[in-house]
Amino acid sequence: MKRLSRSYIETIANNILAEYMKLPEFSGTRVYRIEPEILLTKVLGLNIEHAHLSMDGSILGLTSFSDVEVEIYDETDMETFLFLDGKTIVIEKELATDVSKRGRYNFTAMHEGSHQIFKRLFPNDYGASQSTEELHFHTYNSEKNKPIMDWEEWQANALASALLLPETLIKQGMFIVGLGDKVYSIHKYNREVYERFCNLADFLGSSKQALAIRMKQLGLLEKEYIHSPNSIFDIYREV
Fold it and tell me: Looking at the whole model, is its pTM more than 0.90?
């Protein structure tokens, strides 16, 4: 598997987004956010299915590069099967029906689409390390920063983030919601900034966590305390 730099992944994303902007849907209009379903189906020619992928909801999405049957669950939690044709991504049905999870839905769609993009760009290299596995899964918490244990997953996350949250659209959105050019910190104790940040995440169709990670990567945000707001009060001993 090729290990691509973040800057190279950004270049791939920019090329795909350039094609997205040329679609007839956006002719003569100003684009404010990226719609994953339009990008995946009309730019990449992929199909999107929704299904219950696991009993506990831990699997958010999956895709395959070849013909394969995947086990899913029906409305009564009985096991059944869905046929994948090598150009289809499947997203957990609950994400598609719950408006509050739209950001996670969008990132999952881009993540699975990113696997398909890399396979097309590097057909002989991508997936070579997973010769016994036919499926790529996206699970909870895969958006968080952590040591890179799986380069294919890291690169899919990086490309998904660049596609869903282009720098130009984040900056445009920051201006619209009144966040200025850069944010020092995001935490619930600064209600005004926090609410504007939440509005920006909704505006861009992103989860708050994914947006915070992306903004930090781009140098638009210094610190965030979304999941641990009380850590802002931690006192660290100087060494």
Answer: no
